[in-house]
Structure formats: structure tokens, C-alpha cells
């Protein structure tokens, strides 16, 4: 499992993600007071904070989440769509790049310890 603390606007969020099986992963997310989130980030989180801006792009009933990374992961852009089930059909936009589902290098937990700017060119 992975536990993540983040701040979006003036709200803190605590997210717990389970093990990835195929393209599926359990996820639980809860709002927490911003001050609590800041204290957790300061006192409980390891070095290697992920700095990114998240954009949401609706596609019918679904929504793309597009993360533009900054800092040590500058240059990396990842798009993800949350599906009700793995076999849910969806249109792949023309701007979508290579498929990275299942590549653990792209997990936030991995990017915090081995940032994108340290990777050898693919």
C-alpha cells in the first residue's frame, strides 16, 4: 500500500492506494484540514516530495487527470483516466502518448526516490 498526503487549494487530502493488479488499484481518499496536511508533510513524509499541477479534462462520463510535473520530475506529463472497470471502453485522444500502465517508474512513490530527470533516455 501507498499512503499519500497532498494539498489542493485550501484542502488537505489523505490517500491510501492498494496493490496494483493489472490496471486496477484500490484507492481511498479523505479530506483533512489543510494545517493537518501541512504538519503531516513536514513531520511524517520522507524526502522527495512530488511537485505537480493536476488538470482535469472531462470526456463524457469519464475524466482524464493530466499531471504536469515540476522540480526533479520537470518534463514529465502523465495522463490517467479512472474507469469503472478495466474493460470499460473509452476513446483515446490524439494527444495521448505511450502507454505506461504497469510501469512502476511512473508511480509517485517511485518518482519521489528516482525522479524523471535521473532516468536514462528511453
Which features characterize this protein?
122 residues, mainly beta, 2 helices, globular
Reconstruct the topology from this structure:
Elements: E1 2-8, E2 11-17, E3 27-33, H1 34-43, E4 52-59, E5 62-69, E6 77-81, H2 108-113
Antiparallel strand pairs: 1-2, 2-3, 4-5, 5-6
Q: Architecture of the largest domain, according to CATH?
A: Beta Barrel
Query: Could you tell me the number of beta strands?
Result: 6
How many domain modules? 2
Note the main sheet.
Answer: 3 strands, antiparallel
Helices, by number, come to 2
Mean pLDDT level: 88
Tell me the radius of gyration: 15 Å
Reading off the top of the CATH hierarchy, the class of the largest domain is best stated as Mainly Beta
Q: Could you please say which CATH topology of the largest domain applies here?
A: Hypothetical Protein Pfu-838710-001
- SSE topology string: EEEHEEEH
Instruction: Provide the CATH superfamily of the largest domain.
Output: Hypothetical Protein Pfu-838710-001
Gross geometry: globular
Separation, N- and C-terminal Cα atoms: 28 Å
Instruction: Flag low-confidence runs.
Output: none
**Strand arrangement, major sheet:** 1-2-3
Amino acid at each position: 500500500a501507498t499512503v499519500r498526503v497532498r494539498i489542493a487549494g485550501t484542502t488537505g487530502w489523505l490517500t491510501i492506494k492498494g496493490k496494483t493488479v493489472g490496471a486496477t488499484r484500490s484507492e481511498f481518499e479523505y479530506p483533512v484540514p489543510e494545517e493537518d496536511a501541512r504538519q503531516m508533510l513536514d513531520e511524517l513524509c520522507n524526502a522527495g516530495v512530488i511537485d505537480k499541477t493536476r488538470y482535469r479534462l472531462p470526456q463524457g462520463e469519464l475524466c482524464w487527470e493530466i499531471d504536469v510535473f515540476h522540480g526533479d520530475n520537470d518534463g514529465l506529463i502523465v495522463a490517467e483516466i479512472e474507469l469503472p472497470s478495466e474493460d470499460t471502453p473509452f476513446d483515446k485522444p490524439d494527444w495521448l502518448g505511450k502507454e505506461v500502465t504497469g510501469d512502476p517508474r511512473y508511480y509517485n512513490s517511485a518518482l519521489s526516490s528516482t525522479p524523471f530527470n535521473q532516468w536514462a533516455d528511453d
